[in-house]
Inverse folding.
């Protein structure tokens, strides 16, 4: 596992050094004869290639061939060692420079972000959140104390995900993630106390932010809500419901999985907000040109007073700040958003 992270060039050089040591040990053993041990030959090899020069332990004064072998071996061995250290230095410097440039590039990109989502804490829960946002092409910024999470993103084919390295409970780190311009925040650390602090801090820094928090212990749900979270997801509770649903209604859960998480399915369950300036406010659902959009299906609507309308009839009146729950492709969703905003009357 460790060898995978070592460049092939370094592995090749190390292999050559091992070969040089073997050749040197064998050569000095032959030159020294029976009176000299393998340890003496290895010692001579070591002090020769490192140019330490502690002294001749083999006895080369009366051995012209030995002197010639040593001269050639010094150049080959010392050169190989020098090349190894040069390569190591270059590898370290290049790696550090690459990190610096990558970090600066991300900081520059993050500083221009608006309407994005912030994920605080990249464990398995946070990784799933990042994965879904990435698949649905939502702008996002991750926060974690471990910079190696960038490699985790690459391992899961998530491309260049922007990462702010630091503690999400600190104001400065949230500012770096441009929280004042963010649309939503996920508190996904494995500590309920940290999620409480993150929710409280984020709410103070951006009162209009939508905050979704993870909760490990159900007794902390109210605390996290009071801290500022709009919704709290208790993992044990959700997991239990999912297990029961898999037993009682397996095909329903499979359908929802396909709609919500299957990256190969073009359809998604989406949510549409009817803006206050929409020209369709006061009109009926049937007045929207759905045929011009595609196979989009409205399955529910939620009024501003939180009243739900399931399977809306064509005569259902569209209201300001109504939320429509639809099944559509991402392209169809964007087209409906454009229509409801009044930018166009027809999908083209």
């Amino acid at each position: 596992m460790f060898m995978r992270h070592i460049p092939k060039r370094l592995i090749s050089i190390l292999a050559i050094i091992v070969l040089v040591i073997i050749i040197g040990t064998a050569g000095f053993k032959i030159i020294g004869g029976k009176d000299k041990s393998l340890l003496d030959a290895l010692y001579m090899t070591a002090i020769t290639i490192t140019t330490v020069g502690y002294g001749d332990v083999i006895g080369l004064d009366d051995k012209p061939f030995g002197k010639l072998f040593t001269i050639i071996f010094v150049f080959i061995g010392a050169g190989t060692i020098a090349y190894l250290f040069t390569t190591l230095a270059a590898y370290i410097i290049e790696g550090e420079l690459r990190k610096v440039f990558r970090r600066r590039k991300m900081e520059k990109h993050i500083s221009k972000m608006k309407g994005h989502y912030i994920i605080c804490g990249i464990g398995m829960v946070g990784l799933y959140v990042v994965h879904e946002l990435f698949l649905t092409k939502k702008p996002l910024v991750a926060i974690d104390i471990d910079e190696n999470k960038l490699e985790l993103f690459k391992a899961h084919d998530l491309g260049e995900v922007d990462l702010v390295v630091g503690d999400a409970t600190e104001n400065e780190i949230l500012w770096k993630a441009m929280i004042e311009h963010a649309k939503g925040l996920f508190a996904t650390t494995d500590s309920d106390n940290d999620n409480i602090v993150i929710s409280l801090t984020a709410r103070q820094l951006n009162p209009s932010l939508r905050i979704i928090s993870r909760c490990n212990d159900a007794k902390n749900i109210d605390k996290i809500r009071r801290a500022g979270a709009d919704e709290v997801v208790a993992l044990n509770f959700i997991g239990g419901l999912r297990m029961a649903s898999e037993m009682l209604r397996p095909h329903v859960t499979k359908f929802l999985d396909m709609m919500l998480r299957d990256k190969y399915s073009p359809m998604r369950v989406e949510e549409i907000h009817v803006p206050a300036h929409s020209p369709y406010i006061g009109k009926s659902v049937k007045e929207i040109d759905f045929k011009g959009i595609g196979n989009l299906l409205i399955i529910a609507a939620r009024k501003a007073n939180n009243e739900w309308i399931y399977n809306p009839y064509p005569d259902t009146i569209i209201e300001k700040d109504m939320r429509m729950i639809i099944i559509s492709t991402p392209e169809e969703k964007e087209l409906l958003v454009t229509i409801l905003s009044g930018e166009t009357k027809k999908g083209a």
Remarks:
- Residues 89 and 95 are 10 Å apart (CA to CA).
- The first helix runs from residue 8 to 32.
